[in-house]
Amino acid sequence: GAGVSQSPRYKVAKRGQDVALRCDPISGHVSLFWYQQALGQGPEFLTYFQNEAQLDKSGLPSDRFFAERPEGSVSTLKIQRTQQEDSAVYLCASSLPIGDGDTQYFGPGTRLTVL
Amino acid sequence: GESVGLHLPTLSVQEGDNSIINCAYSNSASDYFIWYKQESGKGPQFIIDIRSNMDKRQGQRVTVLLNKTVKHLSLQIAATQPGDSAVYFCAEAFSNDYKLSFGAGTTVTVRA
Prior knowledge:
The complex is a heterodimer. By secondary structure, chain A is mainly β.
């Protein structure tokens, strides 16, 4: 079946612009995660949804970062007033409910470059 | 002192040989461990996982070993192929938790 998809795959923004990154999880996966991966590093947790509820946003680096999943399927990560340090790959992952299957399946990521 | 499974950021291996990738995890309370493979321009791909009540688990051409005493995880790849060239990450978590904590990756290059 289809895996996790993300769009756009690449995004170039001028400093100060707002961006929106989209994630389509695997059908039936109620858990959705966003991670940030800096160049040469492992992914770092940003936020977690179970269905439409955002249960943890402790990893979001600032209040410029906002994530939503209004209908419990597609999620959007929004970054306001982008800064150069926001340049990274943003990865989305989905899984079955925690306790039923812990494997997180990742999408291809969106590479954000802030000029 | 004895070095057990020193983590190396890069590993070059001859095609057909076996590879061993090491990872030292940080939290002794973690009880769920995963290995991911990440190719250039792609997201991490699940390889194999293991829970803390096991010390070894085998998959297709891969074996994961867990040593809780020294907080060490390793991934063995048998008969390494060119398609195995990638960055490999270990990750740890608490079971029934959701946050994956990733280690430093190891870049594996397979020589023909």
